[in-house]
Amino acid sequence: MKQKNSSKQNVEGALTTRKLKIHRLLFQSWRKFKNLMRRYPKVSVTIMLSVVVVNVVLMLIFSTDYKWVPYSFSNIRSQVADSSDHSDMGIPFSFENYRTMKAIQDTLSWLAAKEYRTAADTAVLLRLIDKIEKLDPLFFDKIKKATHGKDTTK
């Protein structure tokens, strides 16, 4: 006895024909687009550059952190001179300080990942805090100021 076509087979057949139609449509559109870009290379480069410019302008308009500043040589020179004196953390940049901070960061992440902490772990944490204070004496004042919103240096 021969079984009739099931609805599952009908659905699979309809899906494959739909996939083929979509594939043909996408392939034809892609081929037309490619031919157009090959025929008019200057227009295609212009379109690409205009899309980039529009994206940058929209990014600047919709970003909340961007501040419009008049760009002059003296303004840029003063900003570069101001930013090179100190870093955001107050620690002067050197490779030794960088290695020290990376080691502190690695040890802190190791301590944070531990499930149970012992007295030895507390001693390690106190040594790390001492190293941070040696690198930047105002570090904890900055943290207190950020958390409490008050000036603690008075």
Please supply descriptive tags for the structure shown above.
mainly alpha; 154 residues
Provide a concise account of the structure shown.
This protein has 154 residues and is mostly helical. 74% of the residues lie in helices and 0% in strands.
Task: Describe the structure in your own words.
Helix 4 (about 95-115) packs antiparallel against helix 5 (about 120-135). This protein folds into 2 domains: about 10-60, no CATH class; about 85-150, no CATH class. The chain is mainly alpha-helical and about 150 residues long. The chain has 6 helices and no strands. The model has no long low-confidence stretch (mean pLDDT about 75).
List the helices and strands and how they pair.
Layout: H1 7-39, H2 41-62, H3 73-85, H4 95-113, H5 119-135, H6 139-148
Average pLDDT, to the nearest integer?
76
Task: Tally the structural domains.
Answer: 2
Gyration radius, to the nearest Å? 31 Å
SSE topology string: HHHHHH
The CA-CA distance between the termini, in Å, is 96 Å
Tell me the strand percentage band.
under 5%
Number of strands: 0
- Main sheet attributes: strand count, strand direction, barrel closure: none
Characterize the overall form: flat
Helical content stands at: over 70%
**Structural class by secondary-structure content:** mainly alpha
Q: Report low-confidence residues grouped into runs of 5 or more.
A: none
In DSSP terms (H or I, runs of 4 or more residues), the helix count works out at 6
